[in-house]
Amino acid sequence: MVSLLDFLAVTTLGLSSVLSSQTNPSSVVVSSFQPPLVLTARYSVNTASSLSFGKRIFIFRGGGCFSSKDETFDEDITSHLSESLPPTGGAFAAESSNSSPPVDYEAIGKWTIAYMGQLGLMYGLLWCLDKLVSRFNLPLPYYATIPFFYTFNLKTSIFSLLPNKKLKSQKMTQGDWEYNKRTKPSWTPPGFVFALMWPLFVFGLRATTAAMVLAKTGKFACLPIMVLMSHLSVGNLWNTVNNIERRLGPSVILLYALALTKAATALAFYQVNPLAGKLLALTMIWLSAAAALETQTWRINPDPDTGKKETLYPARVTKWKTKFRWES
Length: 328
Fold this sequence. Notes:
Order of helices and strands: HEEEEEEHHHEEHHHHH
Transmembrane segments: 140-162, 191-214, 220-239, 251-269
Radius of gyration: 28 Å
Distance between the termini: 56 Å
InterPro entries: TspO_MBR
Strand order of the largest sheet: 3-4-5-6
Strand content: 5-15%
Number of strands: 8
Signal peptide: 1-20
Structural class: alpha+beta
Largest sheet: 4 strands, antiparallel
GO cellular component, one term: membrane
Number of domains: 2
Helix content: 40-55%
Mean pLDDT: 76
Organism: Nitzschia inconspicua
CATH class of the largest domain: Mainly Alpha
């Protein structure tokens, strides 16, 4: 039997639904049957409503009903909301909006500083090597410089101002829900292909062709090799954005930037040593396939918080935060 308090609660929500329908035409009706209390309210995706009943407080916001009594999401209401909300909403989205999220200019600024900073640090090291070789008249045997450039390929992340180690492989969503897996396209190569192509084919040809250019120029800090350093800096930035920050959209753009800088490097190498340029251009085949794979991955993996594809630009959303290495 419904008590007087139950009746007053329902009446209050009914009045609020009428007012909401006059001011917000995009609201939807939400119902939950929680014996002995029946709740019916008009729910707006842009506002929050709450109801206190005894020691239990219901807060309607972002597509979910949070109960202070058992600190769990009310499954009846959230399941109803997931069916009733318009496509731009989400059952657990705290930032439901029809408009696109704002641009994260802080992230863009830090990415730019990190890219320029890494490029400057690598140039400084190569410049010092040139001075050292010139001062002591050291020889630069071709077969000795190949291991140097190969190791440099593997360790360029030490010059990055952004974190590159995987502290977490998950991307956190609102409410600390973890999504640690991405759906892969059906034509994704098996894991061992990546393990072979990157260190052997890509890194190997980078090191070999860079040594060929060094043999012609006699300098580490020359224009063609610095174009290669620019390419490696973009690669480290992509690693941070894709694997650390887990921004799938911007990582697609950075992968195409990686392909463009590789093409520029191959052209710069070709102007010094045509064979070196042609050999390095072969790696464009693999990089183009990787870019296509990343693009398809972005298409089939909507943001778990919004249900839509992630923006290609860095969005200023609570779950994403760009930090330098020294920031806590």
